[in-house]
Amino acid sequence: MTLDRRRFLHFGALALGAPALGALAGCGRPGARGGGGGGSGTVRFQGWDFESALVQQNIDRFMKLNSGIKVDYTPITSAQYVQKIVAEYTGGTDPDALYVYDDSLAAWIGAGYLQPLEGMPDLDKVYDTIYPGNAETMTYDGKRYGLPYYTDCDAGADAQ
């Protein structure tokens, strides 16, 4: 199942409430879908295992508010996350949505794992509400690829 634009924006609302690191990104090669387990109305979502119980609570709340969409969430051990996701894409079982580490974004775009969000309804309006540095982190080669769901800062770096 390819994640359509409407479903992604609805799903992005879920991600904005989850406390973890990275970005939620639209996945899959346009027009081609791996062996993803999603049937009609099902989103396969994968992320690292930080606060997975809280993420599941947010998913449950999202599904209650969006009764036509089921989310199958798989938390993956952080130390193995990148290797597991790459193996899934290589094997054709890629998820519909996932967390992306900042340092994996360009490589995963280059490999065709992620779809840009350009052309989605209200994308400019959503990006206008995001801190500019966060928006830049999710932008590659002029195209936007994700929605943030957590951010922090390192005030100590400038204070010394």
In short:
By secondary structure, this protein is of the alpha/beta class. It has 7 helices and 7 strands, in the order H-E-E-H-E-H-E-H-H-H-E-E-E-H. The chain has one domain (5-145): 3-Layer(aba) Sandwich (D-Maltodextrin-Binding Protein, domain 2), CATH 3.40.190.10.
Radius of gyration: 15 Å
| CATH architecture name | 3-Layer(aba) Sandwich
CATH homologous superfamily (4th level) name: Periplasmic binding protein-like II
Number of helices: 7
Helix proportion: 25-40%
Spatial strand arrangement across the major sheet:
3-2-4-1-7
Distance between the termini: 50 Å
Order of helices and strands: HEEHEHEHHHEEEH
Shape: globular
Give a written overview of the molecule.
The structure is a single chain. 37% of the residues lie in helices and 18% in strands. It has helices at 5-15, 52-65, 81-91, 105-110, 123-128, 132-137, 155-159, and strands at residues 23-26, 42-48, 70-76, 97-100, 139-140, 143-144, 146-148. By secondary structure, it is α/β, with parallel strands linked by helices. Strand 5 (139-140) and strand 6 form a beta hairpin. It has one domain (5-145): Periplasmic binding protein-like II (D-Maltodextrin-Binding Protein, domain 2). It contains seven helices and seven strands, in the order αββαβαβαααβββα. The strands form two sheets. A five-stranded mixed beta sheet has the order 3-2-4-1-7, with helices on one face. It has a two-stranded antiparallel sheet with strand order 5-6. Helix 1 (5-15) crosses helix 2. The radius of gyration is 15 Å and the shape is globular.
